[in-house]
């Protein structure tokens, strides 16, 4: 039996499972395999016969649903049978590749090198044991007492994973009906006929099926002698792993049950695109990756990869467990990954990425290989570009999502170039038009932030300035791609303005280098560790000067005065204003000018000016002196009251 590219399909008359798939091509036997019935010789998609397309290469005898109920010529009942694997560790159970041999214990070798083919159950168990020698990412990248929010990311970048232990989830992440979140609950929300993608863990090929069919497969398991779960197909011979890693449900009722971390909402480029706007370009609907569900059977495996377009991702484990093995995206490691992607070892799946690097005598530095085993209640935020594979340690139920953002712009561009070179299928990547559109919205946003910083005389994050320059460079190259430009942006005028803003900020950064030693981490209660700062249960938003309230003409102070008694006098200290609410003082709180603790030095004498200008100078400098006095007086009054308390 071979796959058909020309024979008519039975489902073309009776209704094909793939009819709603916009990418469906009946001649694409790789993604949409078909098999001929042994009785009527009509070709069928296995999925249209209530089977899995991933089973196609394993059939020994196959009958369509019309012929299966009849007896064969000998009067025996017909049944679908499968070939018994000769070598269970191999994804191709029927033949050995040239140069391969099997020893008396069934182990497979090429020369003296034992082959444990990636994606098999044996391989997953071996990888879990080997990973114990790698660096513990949960300890190295734990959030601890760091205060992670958008401002922190802008200042420090997002180049390393962030791990949140159970009980300390990122602010904004909420999963309602948490205890009910099982495959049964998902069936109720999405329906049995809901179409989901799944991967054959051995071939890493993606197919489609219904949620009900996968539910029946997932629950049909036995416990092996070593305590692991064995999942068979209908013949009870093939122990297969089908992994679901991308049920996108942003437009489904289930989306109302899950809120993504607030940090990702604030930095995401996707959130900058208006849902319904006449200014938005008419691009094809991009793949949604904001909210997705992962369902993995024990010992299932996702091969080494970089997330789509170098996007950053969040994962939260509801039940079960996932083992992430990560490699830092250095230039050398990315080059090794590109070589492996195009190598025969990857195509034939004889070696995983790390094994191949060792075989090529170009291993990854041990300090750059990280293991992060996530358990129920734990959350991980992974930056873009990190090379990783995933093993399911226990039957798992996981929520996650991907975003593109400004602080990952350079890495995202590298990954997009790698995708183009690797010829990634269109359904697994963003379209070029959509990526360019996102870049325009991102450029518009970061340009606005730079203008506000320049206008207010504030320092802009140097790391974010580097990313802004990269965005400007990308937009300059694509300024002639008019289909990707929102209609409310005039590209040439915008780019010129953007460039000038960058020049001003770079000059400011050069003339006034920041005093990094003066920065202090804010102090927070344990309940606030790793979350956005909230006030009265609501998100705190700093008001602009034009919206600040006034009381009897008083001014709001930009710093909170911290009072301590040391050696009989008051110590005054300023904290970082980004994390502090503004204090307001009325004119009634201004103390007398003879306060001992805040006596001011006399102002220097006025310089001599021409007689006709002297009165103006006096008035101008007099106003300046009065303003300084008023600010000092208000501080003194506040200190005095706190001291009395």
Automatic annotation (TrEMBL):
<feature type="compositionally biased region" description="Basic and acidic residues">
    <location>
        <begin position="530"/>
        <end position="544"/>
    </location>
</feature>
<dbReference type="InterPro" id="IPR050690">
    <property type="entry name" value="JHDM1_Histone_Demethylase"/>
</dbReference>
<protein>
    <recommendedName>
        <fullName>JmjC domain-containing protein</fullName>
    </recommendedName>
</protein>
<dbReference type="InterPro" id="IPR003347">
    <property type="entry name" value="JmjC_dom"/>
</dbReference>
<keyword id="KW-0408">Iron</keyword>
<dbReference type="Pfam" id="PF17811">
    <property type="entry name" value="JHD"/>
</dbReference>
<keyword id="KW-0804">Transcription</keyword>
<dbReference type="InterPro" id="IPR011011">
    <property type="entry name" value="Znf_FYVE_PHD"/>
</dbReference>
<feature type="compositionally biased region" description="Basic residues">
    <location>
        <begin position="616"/>
        <end position="626"/>
    </location>
</feature>
<keyword id="KW-0223">Dioxygenase</keyword>
<keyword id="KW-0560">Oxidoreductase</keyword>
<keyword id="KW-0479">Metal-binding</keyword>
<feature type="compositionally biased region" description="Basic and acidic residues">
    <location>
        <begin position="509"/>
        <end position="523"/>
    </location>
</feature>
<dbReference type="GO" id="GO:0005634">
    <property type="term" value="C:nucleus"/>
</dbReference>
<keyword id="KW-0156">Chromatin regulator</keyword>
<feature type="domain" description="JmjC">
    <location>
        <begin position="249"/>
        <end position="420"/>
    </location>
</feature>
<keyword id="KW-0539">Nucleus</keyword>
<feature type="compositionally biased region" description="Acidic residues">
    <location>
        <begin position="582"/>
        <end position="596"/>
    </location>
</feature>
<keyword id="KW-0805">Transcription regulation</keyword>
<dbReference type="InterPro" id="IPR041070">
    <property type="entry name" value="JHD"/>
</dbReference>
<dbReference type="GO" id="GO:0046872">
    <property type="term" value="F:metal ion binding"/>
</dbReference>
<dbReference type="GO" id="GO:0006325">
    <property type="term" value="P:chromatin organization"/>
</dbReference>
<dbReference type="Pfam" id="PF02373">
    <property type="entry name" value="JmjC"/>
</dbReference>
<feature type="compositionally biased region" description="Basic and acidic residues">
    <location>
        <begin position="562"/>
        <end position="581"/>
    </location>
</feature>
<dbReference type="InterPro" id="IPR013083">
    <property type="entry name" value="Znf_RING/FYVE/PHD"/>
</dbReference>
<dbReference type="GO" id="GO:0051213">
    <property type="term" value="F:dioxygenase activity"/>
</dbReference>
<feature type="region of interest" description="Disordered">
    <location>
        <begin position="509"/>
        <end position="645"/>
    </location>
</feature>
